[in-house]
Amino acid sequence: MLLSKVASPGLRVVLVLAAVAAAVPAPAVAAGADLSAQRSRQPEPWRPWTQEEWTAPAGRYCAFPLRVQVVSQDVRVRVVDRYPDGAVRREEFAGPLVVDFVDVTTGRMTRRDAGGSGAADYRQDGGWLRYTIVGPAGFGFRAGDHYPQGYYLLDGLHVITFDAAGTRRMAVAVGKQDNVCQTLAGPA
To answer: Which of 78, 160, 163, 178 is 20 to 30 Å from 171 by CA-CA measure?
Structure first.
């Protein structure tokens, strides 16, 4: 992870806190509200989670069909917060994950460590609100998103936000953004 290469541990902490503070709005609290219930909530236990293999059609992320094949994994997930009706508000993901990114048309492949950690924040209706990554981890941007189209291996601290229509935006990018589509396409 790029932040681990920053010489000063204190500077790493400041960078992470500044990025998270910029990306995560503080909750609105009514004057005199009792926060004791919020403070006493504990995350639910970790449970196994499986990264499924998938193929994106040509044009979604890359000019060619992109296949993600899992080489090895030991990913886990836990619910950190729920809405009053029980719907998941926030989940955390962590654990080792190694994948092969494959250009289905040419067979060209690159193997990458994608075993960082992340936190997914959801709207009450289940739609994505924000995804915070402490990489390395993969994430795709489509045509029409507010970031160049591609499938990226993100290393460092990245925060992706989603508007109500599902359009994605890179709100915080501290570290590397490697577009796997360009890597697989080779030199221009």
So the answer is: 78
pTM of the full predicted structure?
Answer: 0.78
Q: Are 33 and 74 in contact (CB under 8 A)?
A: no
- The token duo for 63 is 């000019």
- Give CA torsion, residues 164, 158, 91, 57, to 10 deg: 60
Residue indicated by tokens 């790029």: 2
Locus of tokens 């449970």: 47
Under the phi-then-psi rule, with left for phi > 0, alpha for psi from -120 to 50, and beta for the rest, what region is 59?
left
Is residue 90 within 8 Å of residue 122, measured between CB atoms?
yes
> In this predicted model, what pLDDT tens digit does every residue of 54-74 receive, in sequence order?
999 999 999 999 999 999 999
1: buried, middle or exposed (CB in 10 Å: 19+, 13-18, 0-12)? middle
